[in-house]
Structure to design on (949 residues):
C-alpha cells in the first residue's frame, strides 16, 4: 500500500467557526508550515459532532485516525508537533525544546492533548459514531466542501453518470485512466422506479413518497418544468439542511440534477434561507465548479440533457417552507400559500410543473442510484425506509447531527448516541418536529422513529429537530414558545390561524404569568382543534400540535399553573422567586454582579434578594460559587 | 416649480394659482393686523386714562366724605360723585371687553393668514404615511438629468443623500420583472443595510415592480427592514435549543447593557441594533449570538455582554 502523507482535517462549518475554529486553523497551518509540510491541513465540513468543536482529525501515514475535540489554539500547535516530524533540523530542535519546557512547567503537550483525544473504541464515544448509519452524511467531515475533486474521489457524480450512461470528462488524471464504459443509461422511468422501490419519502416533514411525486411531475405535459431544492429550513432547532449544504454541497447538487433528468426539467433553483451564508457560498461555488467540469450546463456529456441552476435566497419567512408559499416568494410576492390542488407538480413556478424536494431527500438520491433501491429499502421499517438525520440538541450531553435508520427508538438516540442528559438531570421529554411537532414524555421514549408511529403519538417526524428536555424545562413555557413562533410566522391568510393562534398565545401567556382563568384549558383545547381543522397549509394545521401534545402528556403542569399559580419546573419568571439559602458565605459576588441592585452589599452576612427589584435574570445563580441561590 | 400631486384631502387649494392665494392671504392679513394694532392702542389708552384718573377720583371722594361728616349738605354731592364714578368704571369695563374680543378675532385671522402666506413661500411639504411615500410622481420622459430632481425631496429630512447608482447596477444585474423583487431588495439591503425610500422609488421607476409589491414584500419578510440599522447588528438566536438554554435572559441582559429602550430595537445613539431571530442553526452551541457576521455560542446571561465586548475590542485592534 502506498504510504500516504499525514493529513490534518479541521471541521469548519458555521458551528465550527462559531466555536472558534478559524484561529485554530491558522495555528495548525502555521505549525505545519514551520514543519515544512504546508499543504497537509485541510478544512472539511462538520462531521456532526457540533457540540465538541473545534474538532481536529489527524490521519497518520499508516492510516490511523486520531480525533481531538474542543481544540484550542495552543492545543493545535501541540497536535501538529506530536504528529509531524519537521523537515528542518533547526525546527526539530526548537520543537523538542518547546516540549521539554512544556513538560517541565507541568503542562506537557502529550498530556493535555491526550485529554482532548476522542477515543472511538472505548467509553462513551464508542457509541456516538458507530451506532449511526450514514447515507446523507456519508461525506460530511470527510471532504473539503469547496473541492469538487474531493467529492469525485468519493464516487461523486457517479450516480449522475450512471443515469446519463456516459462518463463525464474530467481533467483529473486519476479518473482518465479509468474505463469510460458505463452501464447502459437509465431511462427516466427506470430512475423513478428505483426511487419508488427504495421507499424514499420526503424528508421535509410530511413524508410524501418521493417516487410518486417524481412520476407525477414526469407525466405532466409541456417542455418547461422546474426542479427546486427546498433549503428554507425555518424550523427552530433543526440544522440538518445547513450542515449538508455546507459540508457536502455537490451531493445535493447531484441529487437535484438527477431529479431534473428524471422529470425532464431544464432549470433548477436552490432556495436557501439567507441566514445560512456559508451554505449559500458553498452551493454557489459548487455550481460554478460543476459547470466548469461539465456536470451542469447545456448538453451534459453530449446527451440531450441540459440543466441550469440558480440560487435564490429566502428572505426570512417560516411559511415559505410550504411549497406554494415558496413559489409565491420566488415569484416576488408575499409568501402566502394557496389552496391545493393544483399541486406545484402540476401548476407551480411560473405556472409550469415544478418539483420541490427537501435538501435531505435530494441528498439520498445519489446513494440510492449508486447502491440500488434494495440497499436503501433494507434499512428502516415497513413504511419508512432508509435513514433519517436528526439535529440532536437541548439538554443532551453530546449534541450534534446524527443519522440513524428509521425505526430506531428515541431512547436509543438520546441515551445511546447522545450519551444521556447533561448535568445528570432527569430525562423529561423530547420535542420532535419543531413548531409543527410535539413533546413526547420519557414514558414514550421507546417509540420507534418512523413517520407513522410518531403520528400515532400526536407529534410528527418533521424535518428532524430533536430537542431533549430535562426536569427544569416547563412544558407550558415550551408550548408558549412554539406558539409565539407560529403566531408571528402565520401569514395571516386563514382567519383561524391568524386570530386563533393569537388567542391561544394569550391564554398561554396568562397561564405563564399566573393569571389563568378556570375555563382556559377547555378553551385552549377547543381553539387547538379549530385552528388545525380550518387552516389551509401545514403551518396552521400543525400549529396547535405543541399545545395538544403537552396538554395530553403533561396536563398536571398546566393545572399547576392554572390552579396553584406555580411553575413546577421553576421556569416561568412570573411564578418563581430567587432566594439565598443558608449555604451563602457572604462573598458578595452576587451583589456585585446583580444588574439591578436587588442584592444589598453586605460582606460576611447572608445576602438577601429584594424580590421587588429582582428581574429573574439568573445572573446571581450563575455567579454564586457555593450554589447558594435557589429558585422557588 | 414642479408640484407633487398628492390626492390628500385639504390639498385642493393647490389647484388655485399661487399668486391668487397670496393676494387673498394678504387681503386678510393686512386689515386684521391694523385692527390688532388699533385694539391694542385703544386698550392701552383706556388703561392709561383710568390709571391717571383713579387717584384723583379717590382723593375727591375722600375729601367729600370728610366734608359730609361735618356738613350734611355735601352728602348728596358725595352720592352723585360716587354714582358717576361707578358708571364710568362700568362703561370702561364693557368697552374694554368689546375691544378685547375684537382683538382676539383679528389676531386669529392675522395669524392664520400669515401662516398661509409663509407656507406659500416654500414648496408644499405634505405629511405622508409610510405607504403614501411610495407613491411616485408620474414617470418622467426618460431624461437622465431630471431623475434626481423628480425623486429627491430635500425637505423630507434626508441628511445625507444616498448614491442611487448602486440601484441602477443591481437592477441591471438582476432583472426588471416582478419576479426579481425580492433579490433586488436583498441586494439593496446588502449595500445600504436597510431599504432607503429613495432607492425603492428608483426601483419602481426602473422595473415592473409596483410600490404595492414593495410595501407588501418588505413588510412580510423578516430579513427586509425599512428603518436604518445601528452600527452593529446583534442577532440573538431564539431557536428551541437556545430558548431552553436561556436565550430570553441573554436578550434581556443585552438590552439592559446596550441601553435599548423598551419597544425599540436600536439604541438612541444608533450604535447597536438587537434582533431576536428564529434559528441560526448552531443548536449544539446554544444559546447563540451573532454580532454582525461573527457567531459566538455557549453564552449565559452573565457572559453575553462580555462576549460582545470581546468581539468589539478584537475588531477594533
Amino acid at each position: 500500500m502506498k504510504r500516504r502523507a499525514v493529513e490534518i482535517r479541521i471541521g469548519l462549518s458555521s458551528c465550527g467557526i462559531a466555536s472558534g475554529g478559524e484561529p485554530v486553523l491558522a495555528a495548525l497551518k502555521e505549525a505545519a508550515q514551520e514543519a515544512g509540510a504546508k499543504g497537509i491541513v485541510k478544512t472539511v465540513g462538520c462531521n456532526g459532532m457540533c457540540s465538541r468543536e473545534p474538532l481536529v482529525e489527524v490521519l497518520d501515514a499508516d492510516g490511523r485516525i486520531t480525533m481531538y475535540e474542543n481544540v484550542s489554539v495552543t492545543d493545535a500547535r501541540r497536535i501538529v508537533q506530536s504528529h509531524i516530524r519537521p523537515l528542518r533540523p533547526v525546527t526539530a530542535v526548537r520543537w523538542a525544546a518547546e516540549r521539554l519546557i512544556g513538560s517541565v512547567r507541568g503542562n506537557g503537550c502529550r498530556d493535555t492533548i491526550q485529554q482532548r483525544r476522542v477515543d472511538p473504541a472505548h467509553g462513551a464515544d464508542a457509541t456516538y459514531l458507530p451506532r449511526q448509519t450514514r447515507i446523507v452524511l456519508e461525506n460530511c467531515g470527510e471532504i473539503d466542501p469547496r473541492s469538487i475533486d474531493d467529492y469525485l474521489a468519493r464516487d461523486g457524480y457517479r450516480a449522475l453518470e450512471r443515469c446519463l450512461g456516459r462518463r463525464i470528462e474530467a481533467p483529473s488524471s486519476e479518473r482518465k485512466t479509468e474505463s469510460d464504459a458505463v452501464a447502459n443509461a437509465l431511462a427516466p422511468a427506470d430512475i423513478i422506479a428505483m426511487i419508488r422501490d427504495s421507499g424514499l419519502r420526503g424528508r421535509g416533514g410530511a413524508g410524501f413518497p418521493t417516487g410518486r411525486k417524481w412520476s407525477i411531475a414526469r407525466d405532466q405535459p409541456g417542455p418547461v418544468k422546474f426542479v427546486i431544492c427546498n433549503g428554507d429550513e425555518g424550523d427552530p432547532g433543526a440544522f440538518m439542511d445547513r450542515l449538508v449544504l455546507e459540508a457536502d454541497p455537490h451531493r445535493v447538487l447531484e441529487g437535484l440534477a438527477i431529479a431534473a433528468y428524471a422529470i425532464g426539467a431544464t432549470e433548477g433553483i436552490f432556495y436557501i434561507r439567507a441566514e445560512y451564508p456559508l451554505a449559500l457560498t458553498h452551493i454557489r461555488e459548487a455550481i460554478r465548479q460543476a459547470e466548469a467540469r461539465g456536470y451542469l450546463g447545456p448538453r451534459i456529456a453530449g446527451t440531450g440533457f441540459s440543466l441550469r441552476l440558480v440560487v435564490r435566497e429566502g428572505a426570512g419567512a417560516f411559511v415559505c417552507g410550504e411549497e406554494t408559499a415558496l413559489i409565491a416568494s420566488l415569484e416576488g410576492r408575499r409568501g402566502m400559500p394557496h389552496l391545493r390542488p393544483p399541486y406545484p407538480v402540476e401548476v407551480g413556478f411560473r405556472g409550469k410543473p415544478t418539483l420541490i424536494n427537501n435538501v435531505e431527500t435530494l441528498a439520498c438520491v445519489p446513494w440510492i442510484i449508486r447502491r440500488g433501491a434494495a440497499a436503501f429499502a433494507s434499512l428502516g421499517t415497513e413504511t419508512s425506509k432508509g435513514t433519517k438525520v436528526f439535529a440532536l440538541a437541548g439538554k443532551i450531553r453530546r449534541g450534534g447531527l446524527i443519522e440513524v435508520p428509521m425505526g430506531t427508538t428515541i431512547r436509543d438516540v438520546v441515551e445511546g448516541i447522545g450519551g444521556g442528559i447533561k448535568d445528570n438531570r432527569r430525562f423529561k421529554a423530547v420535542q420532535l418536529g419543531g413548531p409543527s411537532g410535539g413533546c413526547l414524555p420519557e414514558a414514550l421514549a421507546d417509540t420507534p422513529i418512523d413517520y407513522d408511529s410518531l403520528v400515532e403519538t400526536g407529534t410528527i417526524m418533521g424535518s428532524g429537530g430533536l430537542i431533549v428536555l430535562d426536569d427544569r424545562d416547563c412544558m407550558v413555557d415550551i408550548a408558549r414558545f412554539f406558539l409565539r413562533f407560529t403566531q408571528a410566522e402565520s401569514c395571516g391568510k386563514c382567519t383561524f390561524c391568524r386570530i386563533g393562534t393569537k388567542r391561544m398565545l394569550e391564554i398561554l401567556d396568562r397561564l405563564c404569568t399566573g393569571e389563568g382563568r378556570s375555563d382556559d384549558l377547555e378553551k385552549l383545547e377547543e381553539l387547538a382543534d379549530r385552528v388545525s381543522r380550518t387552516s389551509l397549509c401545514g403551518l396552521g394545521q400543525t400549529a396547535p400540535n405543541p399545545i395538544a401534545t403537552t396538554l395530553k402528556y403533561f396536563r398536571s403542569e398546566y393545572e399547576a399553573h392554572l390552579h396553584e399559580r406555580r411553575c413546577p419546573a421553576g421556569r416561568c419568571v412570573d411564578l418563581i422567586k430567587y432566594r439565598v439559602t443558608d449555604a451563602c458565605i457572604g462573598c458578595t459576588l452576587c451583589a456585585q454582579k446583580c444588574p439591578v441592585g436587588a442584592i444589598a452589599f453586605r460582606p460576611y452576612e447572608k445576602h438577601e434578594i429584594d424580590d421587588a427589584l429582582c428581574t429573574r435574570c439568573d445572573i446571581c445563580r450563575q455567579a454564586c460559587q457555593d450554589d447558594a441561590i435557589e429558585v422557588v | 416649480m414642479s408640484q407633487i400631486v398628492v390626492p390628500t384631502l385639504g390639498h385642493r387649494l393647490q389647484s388655485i394659482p399661487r399668486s391668487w392665494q397670496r393676494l387673498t392671504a394678504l387681503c386678510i392679513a393686512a386689515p386684521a393686523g391694523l385692527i390688532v394694532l388699533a385694539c391694542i392702542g385703544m386698550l392701552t389708552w383706556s388703561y392709561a386714562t383710568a390709571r391717571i384718573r383713579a387717584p384723583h377720583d379717590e382723593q375727591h371722594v375722600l375729601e367729600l366724605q370728610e366734608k359730609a361728616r361735618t356738613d350734611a349738605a355735601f352728602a348728596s354731592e358725595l352720592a352723585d360723585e360716587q354714582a358717576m364714578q361707578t358708571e364710568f368704571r362700568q362703561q370702561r369695563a364693557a368697552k374694554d371687553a368689546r375691544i378685547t374680543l375684537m382683538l382676539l378675532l383679528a389676531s386669529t385671522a392675522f395669524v392664520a393668514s400669515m401662516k398661509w402666506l409663509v407656507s406659500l413661500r416654500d414648496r408644499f411639504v405634505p405629511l405622508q404615511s409610510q405607504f403614501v411615500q411610495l407613491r411616485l410622481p408620474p414617470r418622467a420622459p426618460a431624461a437622465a438629468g431630471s431623475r434626481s430632481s423628480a425623486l429627491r425631496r430635500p425637505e423630507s429630512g434626508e441628511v445625507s443623500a444616498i448614491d442611487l447608482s448602486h440601484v441602477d447596477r443591481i437592477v441591471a444585474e438582476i432583472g426588471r420583472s416582478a419576479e426579481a423583487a425580492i433579490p433586488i431588495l436583498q441586494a439593496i439591503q446588502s449595500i445600504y443595510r436597510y431599504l432607503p425610500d429613495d432607492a425603492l422609488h428608483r426601483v419602481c421607476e426602473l422595473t415592473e415592480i409596483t410600490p404595492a409589491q414593495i410595501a407588501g414584500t418588505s413588510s412580510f419578510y423578516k430579513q427586509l427592514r425599512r428603518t436604518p440599522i445601528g452600527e452593529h447588528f446583534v442577532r440573538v438566536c431564539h431557536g428551541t435549543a437556545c430558548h431552553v438554554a436561556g436565550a430570553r435572559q441573554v436578550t434581556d441582559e443585552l438590552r439592559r447593557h446596550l441601553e435599548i429602550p423598551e419597544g425599540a430595537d436600536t439604541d438612541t445613539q444608533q450604535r447597536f441594533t438587537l434582533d431576536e431571530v428564529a434559528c441560526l442553526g448552531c443548536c449544539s452551541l446554544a444559546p447563540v449570538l451573532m454580532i454582525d457576521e461573527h457567531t459566538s455560542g455557549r453564552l449565559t446571561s452573565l457572559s453575553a455582554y462580555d462576549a460582545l465586548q470581546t468581539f468589539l475590542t478584537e475588531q477594533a485592534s
